[in-house]
Amino acid sequence: MEQSATLDIETLKITQEQFMLASQSVHLQRPGCDAVYPVGLYGWRKRCLYFFLLLVLVTMIVNLALTVWIIKVMHFSVDGMGNLQLKQDGIRLDGISEFLLPLYVNEIQSRRDSLLVLGSEKNVTLNARNNQGQLTGQLTLGPDAVEAQCQRLEVRSKDGGRLLFTANEEEVIMTTEKFTVTGSEGAVFGHSVETPLIQARASEELKLESPTRTLTMEAPRGVEVSAPKGPLKVSGRKDLQLESTEGEILLDANTIQLGSLPLGVYTASPNQASQEQAVYEVCVCPSGKIYLSPAETSSTCQAMSNICLWS
C-alpha cells in the first residue's frame, strides 16, 4: 500500500512537470514577426498621384480665373448682370437687348423718359393665349403689312375710357367726332357706308363718285345736300333719279337752270324755232319727261308731241 501511494505521488509529480514543460514550450514556440512589409506609395504610383493632384490644382486655378473673367466681362453684381437688373416687381433692361428665342412676359414697359422699340430682321409677332394655351390674339408686324388676328379689335383714347375704333367680323365702328381722309384719291368703299354727315374741308371740294356702278343716298327722314358757299353739281352718265315716296322734292334757289332740254315740235322745225324763238315753255310729258316748246299766247304743250312719243 505504501509503495502504491509512493508511485502515485511520483506519477503526479511527473505529470505536473510535463505540463509545466509543455506550457513553457508553447510560450517559447510563438512565431515572431520576421517579415516587414512597407506601407505607402512608391515608384510610378507615387508619381501618378502627384501628377493627378497637380492636374486638379491647375484645373481649379483655370476655372477660378475663367469665373473671375466672366464676372468681370458680364458685369455681375448683387442687383443683376450688366444692363439686366433684378427688381422686386420684375426685370429691368437698359440699352439694346437681343432675344434669340421666344420671350414670355406679362408686361413690357419702357422708362418714363425713353421710347420702347421692338425690332426684328423679319417680323415682330405678339401672341396672347388663354389658360389652356390656345391662341386668342396675334399681332404681326411684318415687312409688307401689319396683321392683327383677334375676335375684336379696339382702339381707345389715351385715358382708356373712350372707345374710338372697333372692328369685328360683322362691322367696323368709328365713334370719333370727325373722320378725315387726306389722300389725293379719297376713300374707296366696296360696300355701303352709314354716317350722319359727309363734309369736305374748308376751301376744298367734296366729290361723291361711283365710276362703274350706281351711287345711292338714302335716309329714313331725308337726305340734305347743300353747298352754302359754292356750286353744287350732280351728274350721271345715264339717268339721274330723284325720288320721294311720301314727301316732295324741293329745289330752293334763286335760279334753277335745266340745260340741254329737248325742243318739242309745234309749228316750225327745231332749227327755225331756235333762230326765231327767244321764249320757250317748259312742258312735262305724262311719263314725267321735261321738254321745251315755243311759247305762244296759249300753251303749246301737246301730249302727242314727238318728245312724249319717244319717252
TrEMBL record:
Domain of life: Eukaryota
Any one GO biological process: heart contraction
InterPro entries, per database record: Sarcoglycan, Sarcoglycan_gamma/delta/zeta
Membrane topology reported for the UniProt record: Single-pass type II membrane protein
Location within or outside the cell: Cell membrane, Sarcolemma; Cytoplasm, Cytoskeleton
Family per similarity comment: Belongs to the sarcoglycan beta/delta/gamma/zeta family.
Annotated organism of origin: Perca fluviatilis (European perch)
GO cellular component: cytoskeleton; sarcoglycan complex; sarcolemma
Primary residence: membrane
Protein known as: Zeta-sarcoglycan
Sorted UniProt keywords: Cell membrane, Cytoplasm, Cytoskeleton, Disulfide bond, Glycoprotein, Membrane, Signal-anchor, Transmembrane, Transmembrane helix
Segments crossing the lipid bilayer: 49-71
